[in-house]
Amino acid sequence: MNRTRSVSLALERTLNRLILPAGLFLFAMMVVTVIDVVARRLIGRSIPGAIDLVSVGFALSLSLALPVITWRETHFVLELFSSNPTGPLGRLRRHFVAGISAVIIGIAGWCLLQYALDAWYYQDVMGYLQIPVAPLALIISFSLFLSAAIFAIQTFGLTRPIVPTTSEAEDTP
């Protein structure tokens, strides 16, 4: 196995570990929302802090999923140029777009890191539950930096390995 493929597989395994917590936060958001709606219907009151919990869950599930989505290249895509993406110009365009994306996402991560440090210093909290803002901003900043790093390595040609789906893996001897 060549070095590039082993790095790709290691990155794939590492990023796949982010899927479970992202899914758990999504599930927790659903549970809190359902309980809140039922409580409103049955007792006429919502759960105190339910909006805060759903907001935090939303931020965490999206930020944990972002590096995985970036690596898998499963973003929503609006195809502006319909050239052959496997041709030389198509590959050059992919590397160029990945480089620009790395810079933009990196700048966003840096700005959010600065915000997190300020929030830490001023001990900012949000909402009814007084949830500290700094740890959330740090997690999202880290996620943005990870996504920027993935875009950067895609700029230089490292791509996701071809991983068989579960049904294909079961068919192989």
Write a brief structural summary.
The protein has 173 residues and is an all-alpha fold. The chain contains six helices and two strands, in the order H-H-H-H-E-E-H-H.
Layout of helices and strands:
Blueprint lengths: L2 H14 L2 H25 L6 H23 L15 H35 L2 E2 L4 E2 H23 L10 H6 L2
Antiparallel strand pairs: 1-2
Report the average pLDDT across residues: 86
* Overall spatial form: elongated
Major sheet: order of its strands? 1-2
**Uncertain residue ranges:** 166-173
Number of strands: 2
What is the count of helical runs?
Answer: 6
Distance between the termini: 19 Å
Helix/strand structural class: mainly alpha
Main β-sheet description = 2 strands, antiparallel
**H-E order:** HHHHEEHH
Total domain count: 1
How much of the sequence is in beta strands? under 5%
- Radius of gyration computed on alpha carbons: 20 Å
Helix content: over 70%
